[in-house]
Amino acid sequence: MVLESDSGPGPYNAKGIGENPCGAIAPAIANAVRDAVGARIKHLPITAEKGFQALAEGEDG
User: Fold this and answer.
1) SS3 for 54?
2) Each residue's pLDDT tens digit, 2-35
3) From the centroid of its chain, how far is CA 52?
4) Matching Gene3D superfamilies, A to Z (predicted)?
5) In this structure, are residues 2 and 15 in contact, taking their beta carbons and an 8 Å threshold?
6) What is the model's pTM?
7) Is the pLDDT of residue 1 over 60?
């Protein structure tokens, strides 16, 4: 979000009033997969193939 004001540090005197919380989504999904399946996938994107590979290799974190 951007808030226009008379004293903002950004272009057109705008300043940020919120941060994007998307940084926590991928780790949350990875932990849910780990809890459900028992194998940790350490690299994105999380795919079924990576899940099968982690199970075959016995990766549990």
Assistant:
1) helix
2) 445 566 566 666 666 666 666 788 899 999 999 9
3) 21
4) Aldehyde oxidase/xanthine dehydrogenase, molybdopterin binding domain
5) yes
6) 0.57
7) no
Catalytic residues: 19
Q: Is the distance from CB of 54 to CB of 40 less than 8 angstroms?
A: yes
- CB of 41 closer than 8 Å to CB of 55: no
What six digits make up the tokens of 6?
């008379």
Q: Measured between alpha carbons, how far is 28 from 41 in angstroms, rounded to an integer?
A: 12
- The single-letter DSSP state of residue 49 is H
Decide if 47 contacts 26 (C-beta within 8 A): no
Structure tokens at 48: 């079924």
Count of alpha carbons within 13 angstroms of residue 22, beta-carbon side:
1
As a whole number, mean pLDDT of residues 41-55 equals 91
